[in-house]
Amino acid sequence: MFHIGILQLTQNLDDAVKGFKQGLHNAKIEAAFHYMNADGNVEELSKLARALADLKVDLIFACSTPAAKAAKELSENIPVIFTPVFDPMSVKLVSNIEKPGGKVTGMSGMVNAVAKVDFIQLLLPNIQHIAMLYHEKDENSCIEASNFRKAVENKIKLSNIIIQCQEDLSLLEENLPHDIDALFLPIGKIVEENFASIVYYTDSRNIPIIASHAPNVSAGALGALVANHASLGEDCAKQAYKILIEKKSPAEIPVGITTAPEILLNAFVADNLEISLPSTLTEKAKEIFQ
Known about the structure:
By secondary structure, the protein is an alpha/beta fold. The protein has helices at residues 14-26, 45-54, 65-72, 113-123, 139-152, 172-175, 189-193, 195-203, 215-218, 229-244, 267-272, 279-282; strands at 2-8, 31-37, 59-63, 80-83, 104-108, 129-135, 157-163, 182-184, 209-211, 223-226, 256-257, 262-266, 287-289. The relative contact order is 0.16.
């Protein structure tokens, strides 16, 4: 039996853990799991990673970029599999996507920015001006913001709304451009955790939100194009099989990237905003919230 550490920043990625465990079960890998959750406190992750190392686990499944970084920093040569890290090269988890080159590999949760822009233009065919709200101190948020900025160029006018802390959201009403057709939210902990406050301001202006965090759609966003965390977890289990059973090094296991993002839509929000959801999207949607 293998001993596997599960290192989480929050419970937001429980679906990835479930997918990972299901994938291991499907592969007939017997494992005892040791759970460590920082409850959102990034500073706790190093201590929790150390606790897993002291338990002499055979592998660490790290959910989130900070968790993966904490596991990587351990002096022990314990293999680390991560998800859904947005850009593992930019945050220096791996040196190369095809050949990670260390003790870390995993599945990226990145959805191509061009695909997101295409999704937005299908969802809102008359869109001319979109604002993007992101936290400038969140690595993944800045990476996605940069990618989106390049993808949207010459297609839709873009305004940036940059926040430095949670308190800046109280100024959102005055910072929202008067003529925007939608608000795009890249991934990011502060934005996701304070989504209700953002919706409060956009609802008063009838501005649709395009989210990057799946739970935001049921909570009031018009739609999102997202990676399926459970599927990412299952793919991570396949990588774990190569490490635990086939005795391969993470250094030679390529980082996987989601190739089939899911469409999530909110019909209730669409009705309130008098937006007609196109059949080209509703027919392909993974879920339409009512």
